[in-house]
Amino acid sequence: TTKTLLLTGASSGIGAATARAAVEAGWAVGLFARSADKLQTLADELGDAALPLPGDVADPEAQAGAVAALVARFGRLDAAFANAGIGAGAPGTEGGDLDSWRQMLDVNLWGALVTARTTLPELRKTRGHFLVTGSRAGRSVIKGSVYGATKWFIHGWAANLLEEMREWGGRCTVVAPGMVDTEFFDEKKPKALRPEDVARGVVWALQQPASVNVGEVYLMPNPEAG
Ligand code: NJP
Q: How far, in Å, from the CA of 83 to the mean position of ligand 1?
């Protein structure tokens, strides 16, 4: 049987690169993000192994519909990667833009929580794997204090979620990169990680034997290596 992976934030960056790498590794993928046109283009590239699932992670009904559609199409869910996230200019606390705060909380926290709540009943059936994108910013201290704190939440939450999932043989991984050259930034970041570098780490975690839990995939760029 083909294993299946639901990815949020699949329309660009780390999510799109992971979708490509997972299909390359033999997985079928459900592609969730708001940009329906980008998801369709990626699904056309990936063929029968990909299902575009347009929606907003802040909308629990949209996520529920996407999981139902994926299971209807592929018959099972083996892994979910809660990767959608925004930096909103990585706002800090003093003078922080309130709308940006709200959007980050809705996507980075609420959206990831809802992805877990929506996928866990299906993952339980396959003793599956939940992955979530944290950050170096969830392991250290950055100037964008509010963005950084959303990622500290992810790391703390995922460590606790692993304990919950272990009761039925599930697994939980935090994917924690340093800077990655994606649409997260307005400008190119030539010395950063490539989204493909992160995707390789995600697929490596997915491919470990069921008896092995990868708690964290922590990747940093090494710019002086060329
Ligand atoms: O960024 P980008 P990344 N509902 O902008 C989607 C974390 N991270 O790949 O909805 C559903 O290319 C958006 O799609 P769309 C970061 O915090 C990054 O770098 O169509 N989806 C797109 O597919 C985030 O958690 C760096 O606009 C929503 C995707 O999210 C993850 O990596 C470093 C959505 C964002 O793709 C992926 O970001 C680090 C919504 N409401 C952690 N809002 C870095 N780049 O340096 C957004 O440590 N999306």
A: 7
Number of domains in the chain: 1
**38 is in which domain, residue-wise?**
7-95+127-179+193-225
Q: How far apart are CA 51 and CA 23, in angstroms?
A: 11
Instruction: Report the separation in Å between the CA atom of 176 and the middle of ligand 1, taken as the mean of its atom positions.
Output: 13
Q: What is the rounded distance in angstroms from the CA atom of residue 4 to the CA atom of residue 37? A: 22
pTM of the model: 0.98
Ligand 1 binding pocket includes 180 (Cβ within 6 Å): yes
What the block records as the tokens of 44 is 């056309």
Pocket flag, ligand 1, residue 107 (CB < 6 Å): yes
The ipTM (two decimal places) reads 0.99
The answer to the question of residue 100 being in a domain is no
CATH number at residue 22: 3.40.50.720
pLDDT digits (tens, 9 = 90+) for 10-27: 999 999 999 999 999 999
Output the six-digit token pair for 103: 């959007």
- Helices and strands in the chain: count of H runs, count of E runs: 7, 7
Assess if residue 32 is contained within a domain.
yes
